[in-house]
Amino acid sequence: MIDTATGPDLGRPLRHALPRLQRATGLDGAMAGTVTQDGRRLVVTQLHGMLTETMRGFVVTRGMGAGGKALQLGRPILVNDYLHATTISHVYDHKLVEERTHGLLAVPVHVGRDVRALLYGSARTTQPLGERTLDASARVAAALAREFAVEYEVARRLRIVDELRRREEPRPVAALHEIHEELLSIARATSDDGLRDRLHVLCDRLRPPSVRGGSAVPHLTGREHQVLAAVALGRTNAEVAEQLAVMPTTVKTYLQNAMRKLGTRNRTETVRAAREAGQID
After folding, report:
1. 3 lies in some domain
2. Helical H segments across 190-247, by residue range
3. Domain endpoint, select from 129, 149, 169
4. What is the total count of domains within the chain?
């Protein structure tokens, strides 16, 4: 479960990414870790297919070794014949000797401009690693970055909920409605089954009293209002997305939420129902 005191839960998606990385690249082993808040160090927390536990808990410093270089530069680093490579420092060689590592790949996982984690792939054979391995690992890292972004966004919204509840003001009820609906939107959009289940549990806990009991006028979030107002002017999903600086799929999700609340089946019905309910002009 996401702990609002400590931030997003990155360990679960990181752990699940390692088997995907191994399958996608064909490498012998994989490991990963999250970057500290100051961006200077990485702590290896997850292992998959490694020979020993020697790397678990290992701290990698920015600029040192293949991982430290990937962290410093913010781009993948691929090293063949690791122990004899001249492009990296060799302060961690003793660890890799235990793993019989010959080739090593380190791929940063970005959320926005920041590197939040590194994925490692380890090869024990002398077969050179190349562009196909880099491309496959980049796809896994990109998928993981999207999962991280969702985790960070959920944690941010839950911190808002905590703050609103501490204030004990009338306004939080409406804000809780909106956050509750946005979390549901994320749950419907994510392809991660584990995250979806956890989000539904959180939504049940966060659901404001008026949502549980129902109301005569459906509650639309601010974003749903904006989307419907734009659709009422004849704009397409792509045009609304550009106007609101979001993805077209996000606009579609907001429309689907509004349809569900208003009991409608298409855009025309939804706009008409929203007008009749006084939700839009």
Report:
1. no
2. 193-206, 209-213, 222-232, 237-244
3. 149
4. 2
Contact in structure between 64 and 73 (CB atoms under 8 Å): no
Instruction: Write down how long the chain is.
Output: 281
Domain end position, chosen among 109, 124, 149: 149
Axis crossing angle, helix 248-262 with helix 222-232, rounded to the nearest 10: 100
Written as one letter, the residue type at 15 is: R
* Angle ∠(14,76,74) on CA atoms, nearest 5: 85
pLDDT of residue 151: 81
Band (pLDDT 50/70/90 cuts) for residue 207 is: low
Q: Domain range spanning residue 70?
A: 11-149
HSE-CB at 146 with a 13 A cutoff on CA atoms is: 10
Q: b/e map of 142-153 (b: 16 or more CB within 10 Å)? A: ebbbebbebbbe
CA distance 80 to 232: 58
Distance CA 28, CA 18 (A): 11
With tokens 């390692």, the residue in question is 18
Give the best-scoring range by mean pLDDT among 8-12, 107-111, 181-185: 107-111
Cβ–Cβ < 8 Å for 205, 211: no
Is the pTM here over 0.70, yes or no? no
> What's 47's domain CATH number?
3.30.450.40
| 195, 253: one domain | yes
